[in-house]
Write a structure and sequence with these properties.
- The chain is built from nine helices and 17 strands.
- Helix 3 packs parallel to helix 4.
- The chain has two domains: 221 residues, PmbA/TldD superfamily (PmbA/TldD fold); 114 residues, no CATH class.
- It is an alpha+beta fold and 456 residues long.
Length: 456
């Protein structure tokens, strides 16, 4: 196992001995699976510990502490695959889990695409990316943070008469992946979040909004009172909304909502959708889907990145590369199974993409609004109206009408519609106002024209 020693400025913790124990369990399971006749095998071991606190209207609603662990083993008999899992690490339970996985494999049809990723693709340079930041934490302190967040928001304006509550969460996870190629990799990560949702107005005029902060290190979180005040301002800004007449207008997705557009693209170029022929971007590799200036880079090695990793879920070495460059799709998002189904090579994306950075060609949100001049700023999306096969897009939305480059009034009860192929090609600008709370790092995205349907 290759995990660097705990930094001296962090409180003492037992994560390294626990990772060693999980690694020993994984290696023991591999030995037993091979002894049972498996040609190939892989094991994942996880431990998670967390604390979650929710408060509402100044009162504690829930306090939940969790501690979970699990072991999953997959065996291959030729091209036949079997998987089983357990949360019990006693020898008899582990032996029964292996027996179950082997029994499933022996009675499963052969699949030519099954099997481990190729041995020569396994990661050899294993390292961490500053993702482990344990901090002393207890329920009382978490409650105090959540209460302070909500109180700060409720105190901003008398029109905020209700709350959907505030929360504080802390989590620490350890994981080990090992396979019969001789690969073993260990990872550990912490995460913290604080959030608040408030309600302003009365009766049918009530509006709800909120804000949250999430980080791998508690010190990187926004201050609780700042989160509460921002939730309040966002809620108040939504009061007295109007509807819009149906028409075609420019639509600016704020950075939070712009992530969903990138997510739709990632889903369309992911192996599962492609080999099932269930994507509107079939055969898109090497073709221009976005404007010529548009680019998306994947960087698995970003310090404190939410999805930084030296290896993917199959042990394949990750690499920094372009997903889109010059508007052209450079590659798909593949693990070894989907790659074999497509006759291609894995892109080290078993388990999903790592950190994505969308290239900006414009300034902050204020500059984006000025550049748009007149149109719709979308700050909330509702529903799941995206057809992955055709690319047809239709979702409920709320936000602000923009006139002369400035916010004119809030709007809700509207639907925005288009086709993702047309929308991607029609992107006019990406802002540098990156929302850092996700592994998909993008600023606001301006789509030149979409249909907006409202009751006005």
């Amino acid at each position: 196992m290759n995990v660097p020693a705990t930094h001296s400025d962090l409180p003492a913790d037992d994560s390294l001995p626990r990772l060693e124990r999980l690694s020993a369990v994984a290696e023991r399971l591999l030995d037993r699976a091979r002894a049972a006749g498996a040609d190939q095998c892989e094991v994942t071991c996880n431990e998670d510990a967390g604390l979650s606190v929710n408060v509402r209207m100044g009162e504690v609603e829930t306090v939940e502490a969790t501690r979970d662990r699990g072991v999953a083993i997959t065996v291959y008999f030729g091209k036949r695959k079997g998987s089983a899992s357990t949360a019990d690490l006693r020898d008899e339970s582990l032996a029964a889990t292996i027996e179950q996985a082997c029994a499933i494999a022996r009675h499963t049809e052969e699949d030519p695409a099954s099997g481990l990723a190729d041995a020569d693709l396994m990661a050899s340079a294993l390292r961490e990316f500053d993702s482990w930041h344990p901090a002393p934490f207890d329920a009382d302190r978490a409650v105090d943070i959540a209460l302070a967040c909500e109180a700060a928001g409720r105190g901003v304006d008398a029109r905020i008469g209700n709350s959907d509550g505030a929360s504080m969460n802390a989590n620490a996870s350890l994981s080990v992946y090992a396979n019969s190629h001789g690969f073993l990799g260990a990872e550990r990560a912490t995460s913290y979040s604080t959030g608040c949702a408030l309600i302003a107005g009365e009766g049918d005029a009530m509006q709800r909004d909120g804000w949250f902060s999430v980080a791998l290190a508690q010190s990187d979180l926004e201050a609780p009172d700042a989160i509460g005040r921002k939730a309040a301002r966002r809620t108040l800004d939504r009061l007295d909304p109007r509807q819009l007449p149906t028409g075609e207008v420019p639509v600016l997705f704020c950075a939070e909502m712009a992530r969903s557009l990138i997510g739709s693209f990632i889903g369309a170029v992911s192996g599962g959708a492609l080999y099932r022929r269930a994507s509107f971007l079939l055969d898109s590799q090497g073709t221009r889907v976005f404007p010529e200036w548009f680019a998306i880079e994947e960087n698995p090695f970003l310090p404190r990145g939410f999805r930084s990793a030296a290896f993917d879920a199959e042990g394949v070495a990750t690499r920094r590369s372009m997903l889109v460059d010059g508007g052209i799709v450079q590659r798909y998002v593949l693990g070894s199974y989907s790659a074999r189904k497509l006759g291609l090579a894995t892109t080290a994306n078993a388990g999903g993409v790592h950190n994505l950075q969308v290239k900006a060609n414009a300034g902050d949100l204020a500059a984006m609004l000025r550049g748009m001049g007149r149109g719709l700023l979308v700050t909330e999306l509702m529903g799941q109206g995206v057809n992955a096969i055709t690319g047809d897009y239709s979702r409920g939305a709320a936000g602000f009408w923009v006139e002369n480059g400035e916010l004119a009034y809030p709007v809700d009860g509207i639907t925005i519609a288009g086709n993702l192929k047309t929308m991607f090609a029609g992107i006019e600008a990406v802002g540098d106002d990156v929302d850092p709370r996700s592994h998909v790092r993008t600023g606001s995205i301006l789509v030149g024209r979409m249909t907006v349907a409202g009751g006005g």
